[in-house]
Amino acid sequence: MKKILTTPIKDEDLADLNVGDIVYLTGRLVTCRDVAHRRLIEQKRQLPVDLKGGAIFHAGPIVRKTDEGDFEMVSIGPTTSMRMEKFEKQFIKETGVKLIIGKGGMGPETVAGCAEDKAVHAVFPGGCAVLAATKVERIEGAEWQDLGMPETMWVNKVNEFGPLIISIDTKGNNLFEQNKARFNEKKGPILERIKSQVGFIR
Amino acid sequence: MTDIMTKFTSYIGKRLPTDIKEKLADLREAETNPMANVLFDSMAENQEAADKLNRPSCQDTGVIQYFITAGAKFPLLGELEDILRNATLGATKLGPLRHNAVEAFDEKNTGTNTGSRIPWLDWEIVPNDDSVTIDVYMAGGGCTLPGASTVLMPGQGYEGVVDFVFDVVTSRGVNACPPLLIGVGVSTSAETAARLSKKAILRPVGSQHGNANAAKMETLLEDGLNELGIGPQGLTGNSSVMGVNIESSARHPSTIGVAVSTGCWAHRRGRIRFNADLSYEIVSHEGVVL
Q1: Backbone dihedral region of B236: left (phi > 0), alpha (psi from -120 to 50 degrees) or beta?
Q2: What distance lies between CA B19 and its chain's CA centroid?
Q3: Catalytic residue among A37, A39, A98, A118
Q4: What is the CATH number that goes with domain A3-173?
Q5: Is A58 tagged catalytic?
Q6: Using the beta-carbon criterion (under 8 Å), do B170 and A184 form an inter-chain contact?
Q7: I need a surface site. Which of A89, B156, B179, B196 has the fewest CB within 10 A?
Q8: Count of CB contacts below 8 A, A vs B?
Q9: Tens of pLDDT along B76-103?
Q10: pLDDT tens track for B174-193
């Protein structure tokens, strides 16, 4: 059965989730990336959207205006989450956000933030931006449009948005760190074997 | 020509080139890891949706780059820069493409995908020829971030090249939407290697370097990286890369310039060739109607 998280997300909704689990999101999903993080943390500006119990998406979409003057989501895939590592722990603390969706792993600070304030990071498959757009029912708001299309905070109503692979859970586990350790362990012998065959300079 | 390049630029954001499509289908077929299968399914579902809805398959349509191999006698040589700038403006509306050109230091998004030196043009002039071949490349931020270039000492040898490639792919490649197409430039300095590494990912998947040692190294790197089992999105699986392409030049005896460029699974590039009379042929995508 599909596991679906619905906003507002409560701490107990996340308690049983482990890294590697696949979930979907129904409710409100707000795009939020580099500049919005900087504005909140470095410039101490208040976010124009209340994110308590909410979900953010590290994404900069393609949006177009319809003839009626509404916004339509054309294409919305995840961006590299690691860019937000510097800010995410404090961001979680200050906003009360519960679900952070992006691409690739995040670092130890985000892991600590997720454990302390009960939040999770999940991966939406990168490059699957049209698939994601088809899960956006409508765009409910567009804040900080002065930042341009990619950095605007787009407020979306989504239905069964996913697949979302939990990469950081509330218990301090980090899927990408586990994988990285695995890759590094394998790397040594492979490198030795290749290097023994490329001594072209004699 | 502006009209054709506008349509072609817009088109390559929506449909993957034939070689990439076939390679992804092969990797999906060979995959046995259940989570990797979910991801490959999402990727296939996405490409179908992009095709059906006529939308860019990835939201990050990149900063547009054109790699031009122009005959010195191509009649519109002097007009090409304007033609490609206008094609970028047109494709941004037609796509639509996300606005990705941010002026450095002013930190303002131009909102048009054009700006100082953007679209980026890379030129190669061929004497005694009157045709032009243009590669359009649309790389997202994610697969651009791992890009790296360095200069090794000869003592580090080609062994040092292997270390460098593996370091880049395992440290930062996981965020670049694997399975990746890896371009390696082996050359004399930081910038010559960097340029060649980019040229390398414009070459078809499965093609080989003309030098036997270089071709051997391509295979060794591809097999070795795949053995790591990075899998789609870095979440583990049977493969890591779609391929490794090496481009090289002669080098200074005291230096080995090496660079790595990575292309994501949604490797959006297209090659089009114009004759002097502006009749054209699309090389990269089979069965295209612009």
Answers
A1: left
A2: 12
A3: A37
A4: 3.20.130.10
A5: no
A6: yes
A7: B156
A8: 182
A9: 999 999 999 999 999 999 999 999 999 9
A10: 889 999 999 999 999 999 99
